[in-house]
Amino acid sequence: MHEQVYTASKRLACQDFIDALDACHANPWAKWTGGCNAAKHELNMCLRKERVERTAKNREKAKERRAKIEQAWKEIREE
């Protein structure tokens, strides 16, 4: 299973998908024959959604920081 699943925020956001995959993996036959692929795919999509949201937020913060830096340099050049 994904290592990143065991962080608190992921467990809250994707808890239903984690539980479904754990329940499916309790049956070794389903685990070995691909019976859990749908549950795993759903968990991957949930984790992907979390990652995409996090990276979009980080990108916006970086743009804001960059704009502040550019403004500071502009003020320094004008002096």
Automatic annotation (TrEMBL):
Q: Which InterPro entries match?
A: Cyt_c_biogenesis_Cmc1-like
Q: Does the keyword Hydrolase apply?
A: no
- Indicate where this protein resides in the cell: Mitochondrion inner membrane
Ranges in coiled-coil conformation: 52-79
Indicate the family of this protein.
Answer: Belongs to the CMC family.
Q: Which domain of life is it from?
A: Eukaryota
Q: Which UniProt keywords apply?
A: Chaperone, Coiled coil, Disulfide bond, Membrane, Mitochondrion, Mitochondrion inner membrane
Its GO CC terms are:
mitochondrial inner membrane
- Biological role: Required for mitochondrial cytochrome c oxidase (COX) assembly and respiration.
What is the protein name for this chain?
Answer: COX assembly mitochondrial protein
